[in-house]
Write a structure and sequence with these properties.
mainly alpha
C-alpha cells in the first residue's frame, strides 16, 4: 500500500512540476523590459522548478531501481525541494499580491505582471504557475514525511536496508 501511495505521489509531482515549469518558463520567455525584481522572482521560481525536477526524477528512479535508492539522499532532496518550493511560492505570492488580472488598476511600475506585451496573460500565467507551486509544495511535504518515516522504519541507516545487520550474520 505504501508503494502505491508513493507511486501516485511521485507521478503527481511529475505532472505538477511539468505544468509549473511550462507556465513559469513561458512567463520568463515572454519577458520584455520587466523590472529587475520581477525578473529575479521569476528566475528564482524557475530555479525552484529545476530543483523540483531533480528531486522528482531521482525519487522516481529510486522507486523503480533499488540500487540507486539511498534514503538520506531522498530525504535531503525532498527537504530542499519542500523548502525552496515554499520560499518560491511565498515570493511569487508577495510579488503578485491579490489581484484580478482583468482589472489591473493602479499597480507600481515594478509589479511582477508588467513586462510583456500582454500584461493580463502574463498575470494569469503567474497565477496559474503559483497555484501549481503550492500544490507541489503540498506533495513535497507529504513525500518528505513519508521518506522520513521510511528512513526511520529501516533503522535509520544511511545506506538503506540492503546491508545485513550484525544479528543476521552467522558465525
Amino acid at each position: 500500500m505504501r508503494s502505491l501511495i508513493n507511486s501516485i505521489l511521485r507521478i503527481t509531482q511529475l505532472f505538477l512540476v511539468l505544468i509549473a515549469t511550462a507556465l513559469l518558463g513561458n512567463v520568463r520567455a515572454s519577458t520584455q523590459h520587466a523590472a529587475s525584481s520581477a525578473t529575479a522572482a521569476i528566475n528564482f521560481a524557475i530555479f525552484v522548478c529545476v530543483l523540483s525536477w531533480i528531486a522528482v526524477l531521482y525519487s522516481l528512479l529510486a522507486h523503480f531501481v533499488d540500487a540507486v535508492a539511498i534514503p538520506i539522499v531522498a530525504i535531503a532532496l525532498d527537504g530542499f525541494a519542500t523548502l525552496f518550493t515554499f520560499i518560491g511560492a511565498v515570493v511569487l505570492s508577495a510579488k503578485l499580491t491579490t489581484v484580478n488580472c482583468a482589472n489591473i488598476g493602479t499597480r507600481p511600475t515594478d509589479w511582477i505582471a508588467f513586462g510583456s506585451a500582454d500584461t493580463e496573460k502574463r498575470c494569469r500565467e503567474i497565477q496559474a504557475g503559483l497555484v501549481f507551486m503550492w500544490f507541489l509544495f503540498g506533495t513535497f511535504t507529504v513525500a518528505l514525511v513519508l521518506a522520513f518515516r521510511e528512513f526511520r522504519r529501516g533503522g535509520g541507516s544511511v545506506r538503506g536496508p540492503s546491508l545485513a545487520s550484525m544479528s543476521q550474520i552467522g558465525v
